[in-house]
Amino acid sequence: APGASVDRIARSLSRLVDRLPASCRVHLVGHSLGGLVARYYVQELGGHTRVSQTISLGSPFGGTVLAHPFPFLVGRDLSHRSPLLARLRARAHEHDVPHTSFLGDGDLMVVPAESAVFPRGDVVVLQSCGHNTLLFHREAIARVVDRVRAVQETAKRERAAT
Q1: Nearest one of 54, 25, 47, 31 to 119, comparing CA atoms
Q2: 8-43 tens-digit pLDDT
Q3: For a tag on the chain, would you pick the N or C end, based on fewer CB atoms within 10 A?
Q4: Residue 49 phi, psi dihedral angles, 5° rounding
Q5: Strands of the chain, DSSP E
Q6: Which residues pair with 118 in a beta bridge?
Q7: Where are the beta strands (DSSP E) in 96-156?
Q8: What pTM did the predictor assign?
Q9: Is 74:98 a contact under the CB 8 Å cutoff?
Q10: 37 membership: H or E segment, kind and range
Q11: Residue-wise pLDDT tens digits, 37-87
Q12: Angle at CA 45, nearest 5°, toward 96 and 33?
């Protein structure tokens, strides 16, 4: 729904994941607000027990100056002064769920660009790539798939060793 908070969307995500078998671990890939939702679910709603990794594409973990004119929408969660974003950044290392931040150097929505970097994990900067282009960029897609496969292979090797 327009104006739905990160908390509300993350609780919906939690209900979806709860419908999966308990042994199932998921990889969460979120664009923009979706990356914030993924980390909120992991860090605030106990999702760390179900999530193998999170990947964000142009997610404003440090806020964006473009949110200020729209506090009545989800802008309250996207402001650089947002208590929710401050909490996500502060608790970034509390759970051992790896994260990769993807950002495009042409992103005009997440301003400043460094706001799209989560304080843990890897950072991938894609050249000549805008905010929505991250969703369709061939290199972004290939690198997201590579990240998912790498974590799956590591988990498979760990299971075989035990």
Answers
A1: 54
A2: 999 999 999 999 999 999 999 999 999 999 999 999
A3: C
A4: -80, -15
A5: 26-31, 51-57, 99-104, 122-126
A6: none
A7: 99-104, 122-126
A8: 0.92
A9: no
A10: helix 33-44
A11: 999 999 999 999 999 999 999 999 999 887 654 554 555 778 888 899 999
A12: 90
